[in-house]
Structure formats: structure tokens, C-alpha cells
Specification:
The chain is mainly β and 233 residues long. The protein has 2 domains: 134 residues, Lipocalin, CATH 2.40.128.270; 73 residues, Immunoglobulin-like.
């Protein structure tokens, strides 16, 4: 009986993984490839990326944007990493707003997981931010990375919160925020969860100068209100 228990314990430890990988929905936010960072182009709602067990200590990670790259993986028992066994990627063609940017970003997502051969190891790291978590998956051979943030924008605690008005969106310089309240915390985060801007509202309507921000998507968080994603062009 002791031998059976020890074998069972060893089997469980042989394929360890961070449970936070499975308890969060992950949304792709940026890709760093060949030293160049590309923020996710806006295409409307993006399906969450997630980890799923397929049995026999094997898993599939669906890295979703417009298309989905799905590597079949095995977790390491000694480090925060996983080994790619195989990968497939869907082949739908996107036609719409930001067409060239979307197709390029889509290709990078698929290439990141498909280009390395089977048996390639990827490292992962989960960073806890003030209001979110960031998952970073790294190819240790070339340093390429994909960033994902968790679904704190759509968690249950935000469902019943109030909404505000924001315009123009996309914006190039000034962001107008209306129908809020005085003396509320106002913050802007990168999609990775990094805090970029913080102030307090001095009226029910405020303006924020975002002209110094790099082009991309950002998260506006007003205390007691639902968070909102806007685009800086």
C-alpha cells in the first residue's frame, strides 16, 4: 500500500503546473518578437486563451486572437515551463478594420508556437499586479515573448458596476470621460497590467491628455465603475 501511495504521489508531482494557469481566462495583449514589441490591434472582443487537460498528463493551450494557436503540451515537474508536443493553428482570414495589423499579429501568434520543433521548451511566469495578473510565455532560445492579462475586466464583481461615457475612441490626444463623480480614483493601465497614469476626478466630466502614450490599447479604470478599454492612435 505504501508503495502504491508513493507512486501515486510521484506521478502527480511529475507533471506539476501552476493552478493559476487554469483558474484565469487569459487575453493576449502583446507579442515581443525579434526584439520588437507589437501591441494587440483592436478587432472587437477577443476570445480568451485557456489551458485544458486532454488526459494522460497532457494539456492544450489555446492562444486565441482572431485565429487560435493550440500547442499540445506537457508540464515540467521541476520548473515553470512546458514542452511542446505538437501544434495546430486555425487558418481563418480576417478582413476588416486594422486588416494588415490584425493579420500580421495573428501570424506572429501562430508562428510563436508553431515554428519551434516538437520537444521545444517554453517558460512561463505569472506576475501579480494591483488589479490583475499577467502571464508571460517565453521562448528561452530567442527571447521571444507573448503577454496575456487575466479577465479582471469581466469578473463577477464588475457586472453590476456603473458605466461612464468615453470619447473619442480611438483617440489621438485628449480622452473625454463623462458621467462619473468627483473625488474618484482614475487610473490608466497598459494591457500588461502596468500602471501608467493616476489621478483623482475633480468634476463629473474630465479630460485626460494621452498624446504621450504609444499607439495601442489601454485600460481606463474609474473607482466604482466598470473598466473600459480605449485605443490610442
Amino acid at each position: 500500500m505504501k508503495k502504491i501511495l508513493l507512486f501515486t504521489l510521484f506521478s502527480c508531482l511529475s507533471f506539476a503546473q501552476n493552478p493559476e494557469l487554469f483558474s484565469n481566462s487569459w487575453y493576449i495583449s502583446q507579442i515581443v518578437m525579434n526584439g520588437q514589441t507589437t501591441t494587440t490591434p483592436a478587432i472587437g472582443p477577443v476570445s480568451p486563451s485557456n489551458f485544458n487537460s486532454i488526459g494522460n498528463n497532457m494539456y492544450v493551450f489555446n492562444s486565441s486572437y482572431y485565429n487560435t494557436a493550440s500547442p499540445n503540451i506537457t508540464f515540467s515537474s521541476t520548473s515553470d515551463s512546458f514542452t511542446k508536443n505538437s501544434t495546430i493553428c486555425t487558418l481563418a482570414v480576417y478582413y476588416g478594420v486594422n486588416e494588415a495589423e490584425v493579420q500580421s499579429f495573428d501570424g506572429k501568434n501562430c508562428s510563436f508556437y508553431m515554428s519551434p520543433g516538437n520537444g521545444h521548451v517554453f517558460n512561463y511566469e505569472i506576475i501579480n499586479n494591483a488589479n490583475s495578473k499577467t502571464l508571460i510565455i517565453t521562448n528561452p532560445v530567442n527571447g521571444n515573448k507573448i503577454y496575456y492579462n487575466n479577465s479582471f475586466l469581466s469578473t463577477a464583481e464588475n457586472i453590476n458596476k456603473k458605466t461612464f461615457v468615453i470619447y473619442p475612441n480611438p483617440t489621438k490626444q485628449m480622452l473625454n470621460v463623462e458621467e462619473i463623480e468627483k473625488n474618484l480614483s482614475v487610473k490608466i493601465y497598459e494591457m500588461t497590467g502596468k500602471l501608467l497614469y493616476e489621478t483623482f476626478s475633480d468634476d463629473k466630466n474630465i479630460q485626460i491628455d494621452v498624446s504621450g502614450f504609444q499607439n495601442g490599447q489601454y485600460i481606463l479604470v474609474v473607482e466604482n465603475f466598470k473598466p473600459y478599454i480605449f485605443i490610442k492612435e
